[in-house]
Amino acid sequence: MMRRLVSLFVVAPFLAAALPSATFAASGKDIFLEKKCNDCHLVKAEAIEKKISKKTGKAKKGPDLSNVGAEQDAAFFTKWLKKEVKIESHFDKSKKVGHKKKFKGTDEELKTLTEWLAARKTKVAVTPEEEGAGAAEEEEEEDEK
Q1: 110: closest CA among 21, 32, 47?
Q2: Model pLDDT for residues 61-82, shown as the tens digit of each residue
């Protein structure tokens, strides 16, 4: 009995390391998908496509984020996702816009997501249709994102 108990203590740490941890830190891409950011955005360089609305049959209006890190840093994205700043519209340069939905995740998730966005620096060709240039402007929402 003692021998089995000792064996268990020797093997247990290795078994625990092999199993997924409940505290496993999600990647920025995981958070992007979990929080449904791809309802409005694609990241073509990461093969993340926008979801098509079941209601309209079209993608929502939102730019590709493949190269967004070349324009802004993680600190900006934190403010953007908290709806603390506005920028020139990607689609209409005469308008100032804020993010449509306020981020509702944890501070850790926000940090991971914004660092991941800041690292997106791959320029790719995207069609206006992929970005939803023909989509109707959505109402601002405070839904969880």
Answers
A1: 32
A2: 889 999 999 999 999 999 999 9
